[in-house]
Request: fold
Amino acid sequence: MTKLSVNINKIATLRNSRGGNNPDVLKTALDCERFGAEGITVHPRPDERHIRYQDVYDVKAAIKTEFNIEGNCQEEKFVKLVLDNKPAQVTLVPDALGQITSNHGWDTIKHQSYLQDIIGVFKEAGIRVSIFVDPVLEMVEAAKTTGTDRIELYTEAYATGYKADREQAIAPYVEAAKLANKLDLGLNAGHDLDLENLKYFADNISGLLEVSIGHALICDALYLGLENTIQRYLYQLRKG
Ligand SMILES: CC(=O)[C@@H](O)[C@H](O)COP(=O)(O)O
Ligand SMILES: NCC(=O)COP(=O)(O)O
Reply:
């Protein structure tokens, strides 16, 4: 079964735009769980323009489902934040400073030795590790030797290509997933997944353990309401 982890970054972005506590990030996380989400994802960035470091402590203390902290482990503050909070999972993303959003996976060959070291730090603390990778076979293969528990396939290219030719868009992901399964690497996916493209992805990717979805889900919630939206995403993952 593929778990749905809701990324609440965009709730924090809205809150920060006025400086108060509306919408309430912690309440939203708890409501997401109440409405059926099987995990909460946050992606704090060094400028704290959406999720703030304090939000991470607050959310961790309150939620009951799997907590997934994503971010750039080259930032010392991020490493401390993760080790302080001990989430169920940390997802390592090779973001540059000031990046609008994540836009590529790790080069697991070039950064092999660095990844081995940092993954070891998190695993030593009992935290499951996932690393963000593009659906490129060499990158998946080299991910295995980093010691990571899982990879998260970066799905922006799938989401962009879906409308024009979904078979072509998913093809590299099918191959990457087959290889990950063969190597016994756990498989997550995320970025720009939405109500339209999610089911086809989940149906065609074997062994998909978790999707983390934020931007589209929060946009849908404006029209459909948060509870209804989460139920609809779960339905896309579960229906035959
Ligand atoms: C790793 C990934 O694809 C998402 O976490 C995405 O980066 C969300 O971050 P933003 O909300 O800052 O776009
Ligand atoms: N890991 C992907 C994620 O958390 C959410 O990405 P998006 O749905 O906001 O594009």
Notes: The pocket of 1-deoxy-D-xylulose-5-phosphate (ligand 1) is lined by residues 7, 9, 43, 70, 93, 101-102, 132, 190-191, 214 (CB under 6 Å). Residues 145 and 226 are 40 Å apart (CA to CA).
